[in-house]
Design brief:
The chain is an all-beta fold and 113 residues long. Helix content is 0%, strand content 50%. The chain is globular, with a radius of gyration of 13 Å.
Length: 113
């Protein structure tokens, strides 16, 4: 059974940075994944996509985080990362790791003004 566990969330002041990690277990390698993504969901809002990495290694971001967030992966250790810089209060949300059809339980990111 595939399990994804996010870590690295927390409380940070506006302008600060955090790096989220997603550890994947129960699968041979994330390198074989069709798609790797990070999503977030703020209170009262729908879950939204914030970063994507297809097998090619290209990266894609919505305008809301472009230039501030960076998705990366460590195939050897089956880990996915999300580097977040210049965080703003509107980035406050639960952040989820998604690899193909599998989801983690999320990690809370809170940005204070």
């Amino acid at each position: 059974q595939v399990q994804l566990v996010e870590s690295g969330g927390g409380l940070v002041q506006a302008g600060g940075s955090l790096t989220l990690a997603c550890a994947a277990s129960g699968r041979t390698s994330i390198a074989s994944a069709y798609a790797m993504r990070w999503f977030r969901q703020a209170p009262g809002k729908e879950r939204e996509w914030v970063a994507q990495m297809p097998p090619s290694g290209s990266t894609y971001y919505p305008d809301s985080v472009k230039g501030r967030f960076t998705i990366s992966r460590d195939n050897a250790n089956n880990r996915l990362f999300l580097q977040m810089n210049s965080l703003q209060p509107e980035d406050t949300a639960v952040y989820y790791c998604n690899v193909d059809a599998d989801w983690g339980l999320g990690t809370q990111v809170t940005v204070s003004s």
